[in-house]
Amino acid sequence: MSASAPSRPAPSLSPSAATASPSAPPRTGSGGLDWRLRFAFLSVVWGFSFLLVKVGTEAFAPFQVAFGRVLFGALALLAVLLVRREPLPRGLRTWGHLTVAALLLNTLPFSLFAYSELTIPSSLAGICNATSPLWGMALSLVALSEDRPTRRRFAGLGLGFLGVLTVLGAWQGFAGIDAKGTGLALLASLCYPIGWIYVRRTLAGTPGSPVALTGAQLTVSTLQLGVVSVLFTSAPGSFPLWPTLAVIALGALGTGLALQMQYGLVTEVGPTTAQMVTYFIPVIATTAGVLVLGEQLHWNTPVGAVIVLVGAALTQSRPRKAS
C-alpha cells in the first residue's frame, strides 16, 4: 500500500503496497488469466504475507526473514528480465536513488514487520499495514505541492486515526497490546509513503520498465540485508521445512511474481481498479491469522480495521471533475 502513485512506473514495493503505475486505458482479451482471477490471487498472496512472515520468524531471525524475502523476490524478477532479455537500469545516479528507495521501501519495512511479529499477531501487523495511505496523505500535504488538502481527505485522516485507536482498544488503556511490536509495525507502514515520495522526486522519468527498476531495487535490498544479517545475526543452525518454504513463498510469490502480475493488471484494467487489491489485504491477513495460526480476535480488531480502510479510501479519493 502506498501513498499517491507517481505518474509513471517506479520501483515497487512490498506485498503491502500497491504498485505505482502509469495510467493506462483498460484492455480486454489479453489472452491470459481473467483479471478477476489475478486480482483474487494478489489479494490472497499479499494478505497471507503476514502469516508467512510469522511462520518464518519461528526458525529464522527477523533480518534473515527479510533477507530471504528480497533475495527470492529479486531472483524471480531477474529471471523475468533474463527471459525478456531486458537489461537492468544504468547510471550511478539511478543506482544511487535505487539504493535509498530499496532502504525505504524494502529493507526497513520488511525488517520492521518481521521484528514486530515476534510479539504481535500477524493479523494486527496486516491491519497496521493498512494505515500506510493515512501516513501518505499526511506526508504528501507537506512534501508534494500537487496534493491539495480537501475536507474529504482530512475527514479520512481523522477517521483512519479513530480506526487505529479502535483496533488498539484505546478505551481500555491498550491492554493486551504489545506497544513495541505495534509501534514497529506502524513505523514499517510509515516507511512506504516516505519511500514513494522520495521515488516521485528522484526516479520519475527514469528509463527502464517497472520490472527492471524493481528487480534492481530488490537486488540492492538483498545486498543491504545480506550485510546486516552477517553483522547482526548468526547463521541458521538448520532450515526447517515450513519456515523455509514460507520465506521462499514470501519472496518468490509475494515480492516477485505478484508484482509482475500487478503490472499486467494495471495495464489491463487501470491503476484505480488494480490498487483496490490493497483494501483486501488486512481482511485476508486477519482471516489467515485466526484460521491458520489460531490467533485471538476481539470485536474491536475487525471493526477498527473497517474504519481504517474507510478512512484510507477517503484519503485516496479525488473530487469528481465537472463535465
Description of the molecule:
This protein has 323 residues and is mainly alpha-helical. It is built from 12 helices and no strands. It is globular. The two termini are 31 Å apart. The model is unreliable at 1-31 (pLDDT under 50).
Labels describing this entry:
323 residues, mainly alpha, disordered N terminus
| Cα-atom radius of gyration | 19 Å
Q: Whole-Å distance between the termini?
A: 31 Å
What series of H and E elements makes up the topology? HHHHHHHHHHHH
Total E-strand runs: 0
Please state the overall shape, judged from the principal axes of the Cα atoms.
globular
In short:
67% of the residues lie in helices and 0% in strands. With 323 residues, the protein is mainly α.
